[in-house]
């Protein structure tokens, strides 16, 4: 019977283990990237609305590339949405944010238009129709006007309202101010496109 030197057997075993490690590591990176669908560009997660409806912020990993941001999401089984701010070079990013956008089996994340951002959604969520209604750019939702909290003023006092908390899933083109109820003798003066003042007589 032929015998092999122990050193030769150990060397072959080490080479086999290294081969297995490399074979497993490479598919993880590739499979990870393949398991995400790219969303619409120039849309960012509306974090306030998303969290209000049940989305969970996971982490902001310190990575510098799109692929590394996605890989960070792959490492967390709860992560299904990664959104990031574009960097100066191709494939480079300024920041990366990971979210769990499922709450009670419902996709609860909302997106708004903002230049310079991109997002990736895990394909099992993207393809399951859970995200269909809220995919960025799929629908044009009505804008949400917000002139600030209710205010109480006395006669001869002036008041300035600001609409910069208003939002839309597309760009806000213009603001229109109207007195819909109350004292019709109030004098309205538009200061800027998103602010106006009025004097209560």
Automatic annotation (TrEMBL):
Q: For this chain's UniProt record, which GO biological process terms are given? A: epidermis development; epithelium development; extracellular matrix organization
Entry superkingdom: Eukaryota
Per UniProt, what is the name of the gene that codes for the protein in this document?
Answer: spint1a
Cellular component (GO) terms are: plasma membrane
Is Signal among this UniProt entry's keywords? yes
Q: Where is the MANSC domain?
A: 39-120
Provide this UniProt record's keywords sorted from A to Z.
Glycoprotein, Membrane, Signal
Give a yes or no for keyword Signal in this entry: yes
Q: Which GO terms describe its molecular function?
A: serine-type endopeptidase inhibitor activity
- The primary site where this protein sits is membrane
Xref: InterPro entries? Ig-like_fold, MANSC_dom, MANSC_N
Q: Which residues form the signal peptide?
A: 1-25
Q: Which organism is it from?
A: Oncorhynchus tshawytscha
Name of the protein this chain belongs to: MANSC domain-containing protein
């Amino acid at each position: 019977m032929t015998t092999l030197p122990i050193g030769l057997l150990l060397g072959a075993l080490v080479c086999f283990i290294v081969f297995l490690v490399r074979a497993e590591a490479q598919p993880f990176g590739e499979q990870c990237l393949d398991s995400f669908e790219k969303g619409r560009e120039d849309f960012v997660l509306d974090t306030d609305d998303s969290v209000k409806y049940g989305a969970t912020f996971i982490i902001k990993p310190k990575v510098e590339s799109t692929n590394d941001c996605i890989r960070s999401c792959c490492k967390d089984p709860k992560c299904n949405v990664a959104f990031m701010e574009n960097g100066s070079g191709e494939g480079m990013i300024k920041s990366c944010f990971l979210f769990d956008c499922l709450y009670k089996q419902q996709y609860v994340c909302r997106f708004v238009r903002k230049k310079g951002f991109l997002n990736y959604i895990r394909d099992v969520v993207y393809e399951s129709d859970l995200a269909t209604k809220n995919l960025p750019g799929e629908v044009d939702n009505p804008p949400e006007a917000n002139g600030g909290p209710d205010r109480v003023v006395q006669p001869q006092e002036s008041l300035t309202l600001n609409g910069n908390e208003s939002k839309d899933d597309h760009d806000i083109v213009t603001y229109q101010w109207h007195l819909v109820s109350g004292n019709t003798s109030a004098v309205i003066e538009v200061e800027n496109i998103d602010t106006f003042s009025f004097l209560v007589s």
